Amino acid sequence: MDKEQVAEILSEIGVLLELKGENPFKTRAYQNAARALEGLSEPLEKVVAEGRLGGIKGVGEALREKITTLVTTGRLPYYEELRASIPPGLVEMLNLPGVGPKKVKALWERLGITSVEQLELACREGKVATLDGFGEKTQTKILEGIQFRRQYAARHLLSDALSVAEPILENLRGHPDVIRCSTAGSVRRFKEVIGDVDFLVSSRAPATVIDYFTGQEGVLSVSAKGDTKASVILAGGIQADLRVVSDAEYPFALAYFTGSKEHNIVMRQRAIQRGLRLNEYGLFRSSEETRDPTLRVPCHTEEEIFAALGLAYIPPELREDKGEIAAAEEGPLPRLVEWTDLKGSLHNHSNWSDGRHSLEEIAGHMRDLGLSYWAITDHSRASFQANGLTAERVREQIGAIRRVNEACAEEGSDFRLLPGIEVDILRDGLDLPDDLLAELDVVVASLHVAGGDEADNTRRLIRAAEHPLVHILGHLTGRLLLQREPYRVNQTAVIDACAETGTWIELNCNPRRFDLDWRLWHYARSKGVKCVINPDAHRHEHVGFLRLGAGVARKGGLTKGDVVNTLPLEQLRKELARKRAGR
Ligand code: DGT
Ligand code: CA
Ligand code: CA
Ligand code: ZN
């Protein structure tokens, strides 16, 4: 068992113990140990084999034994017994907002509730409100949480959809009976949250392709199978639809099934105004609905369809009926940013706060990937749960970063780490003093604990934007897609303040955030506000979020010039100095 698996089990033990009402010090010890293991920079097996577990901070005698058992045998009877003693529904209840272990324990002991379904019923019957420590307000909140979850049960993160869709697309591409293929629908449009995944294929042998699609590895069940289409359920419960068409129909079907529905409706109207008919089978010289191939306007690509309707090509990300058609009437659309334009990132964490890797490891990894710079912006002290840094630790870290950069320079590399901070926006200002912020290359200011009041949150964010030492506002609304609603914020007012003060706004490209939302980037761009596409990386794998972030930035209509982290390091430094110099 590797350290991730062991850490996961330890942290689950902590939760289970809490549900049993164990002493909080004991439960916290498991959480701390899990964190410590995750942060290990060498293989856990090695540490165990060499008897060095005791040297890890937070790992006492009892934990040492349990970790050793897990690593050497892959099992832990203590954990298995503990798990068996607690109904599995309780752990699921913990995912509801405002429901912690104490509450779950009370619901279990006093009302015998062991599942989310039973909890919903008890709320509806008003029983939950009568419990000590609950009340009407809590009951309503729990009920809303349950409904929220249900509403989103059939929705998935784009990143989850892409990770199942991309290998399937690769396989289709390699299939001998497939002429052309693509994803379509919301996945191709890069929506942050998707319902189902759509594939389109052109082929002369649809039946073979459909058999292949429904029979492929990873299909949990086949919900529909016909001559030209099929629907399946994939791992993770994601539904996928496939259409197979002739190659002559392919570009029209691709445009149609890419959508969005709203975009399609306007395109169809436009065709009608020109005495044509547009549908999934073609663009036809006809004044009524038809699919007669002899009437079809020949188009080999989507570009040619747009051209036939007097429009420049519209990239899929923009097809949301948000003004793209009017813009394409005027001429070619601006070239949107590409992920390969990105040269680095300005918001990331290291193991100095809650990230996984050391400064050296991060520098080595990002340099090997060919990036030019990587800001280290660990949390500030108010984020104590994330091991936020005090002013003293920040100064120490600046020195450590300087040494890593010197080593890079000695090896002849131009790659640099940039010292920075993700400073908490508190009720009455920033969490660290100005003289310290002034020593840092990059200052990201983020709201981590919002108030309930829109005016108050907005005021705090605007004040942060007005602060001369703040370069970037981080994840503006704090939303967690399919999980947590955004803070109440007047986003356009904050964007206006950023425009006024020359403050940049982050497009946090963690796939659960994508915050600021793409819908607002059109406005921000019109105000001249610059974007920074930031993965908010806590470990190496998160660098992959940059590709997703660029897709979402495209959806927001952003070009290379709108995105600060497309700049080479020297130019970036100039831009970072601009606001501070009051220019
Ligand atoms: P999703 O799956 O909910 O994330 O969103 P989409 O956009 O992928 O929707 P989906 O899978 O139901 O259909 C794929 C595309 O097919 C959709 O974007 C546009 C097209 N389409 C589906 N139904 C209609 C319709 O009733 N009218 C028009 N004009 N287009 C449609
Ligand atoms: Ca879809
Ligand atoms: Ca679909
Ligand atoms: Zn962060």
Keywords:
alpha/beta; 583 residues; binds calcium ion; 17 strands; 45% helix; binds 2'-deoxyguanosine-5'-triphosphate; binds zinc ion; globular
Plain-language structure description:
With 583 residues, the protein is of the alpha/beta class. It is built from 24 helices and 17 strands. Strands 10, 11, 12, 13, 14, 15, 16 and 17 form an 8-stranded mixed beta sheet that branches. Helix 1 runs antiparallel to helix 2. The chain is globular, with a radius of gyration of 27 Å. The N and C termini lie far apart (55 Å). The model has no long low-confidence stretch (mean pLDDT 94). Bound molecules: 2'-deoxyguanosine-5'-triphosphate, calcium ion (2 copies) and zinc ion.
* Overall pLDDT: 94
Ligand inventory? 2'-deoxyguanosine-5'-triphosphate, calcium ion, zinc ion
Distance between the termini: 55 Å
Q: Overall 3D geometry?
A: globular
Oligomerization category of the chains in this entry: single chain
Strand proportion, as a percent range, falls in 5-15%
Biggest pleated sheet: 8 strands, mixed
Radius of gyration, whole Å: 27 Å
Layout of secondary structure:
Blueprint lengths: L2 H17 L4 H15 L5 H6 L11 H13 L3 H8 L3 H6 L7 H11 L4 H9 L10 H18 L3 E2 H17 L5 E5 H4 L4 E2 L2 E6 L3 H10 L3 E7 L3 E6 L3 E8 L4 H9 L2 H13 L3 E3 L2 E3 L17 H7 L15 H7 L13 E2 L13 H10 L4 E7 L11 H20 L5 E11 L2 E2 L3 H4 L4 E5 L7 H13 L5 E2 L17 H11 L2 E5 L9 H9 L4 E4 L10 H11 L13 H12 L3
Helix pairs in contact: 1-2, 8-9, 20-21
This protein binds 2'-deoxyguanosine-5'-triphosphate, calcium ion (2 copies) and zinc ion (ZN).
The site of zinc ion has 4 residues, from loops.
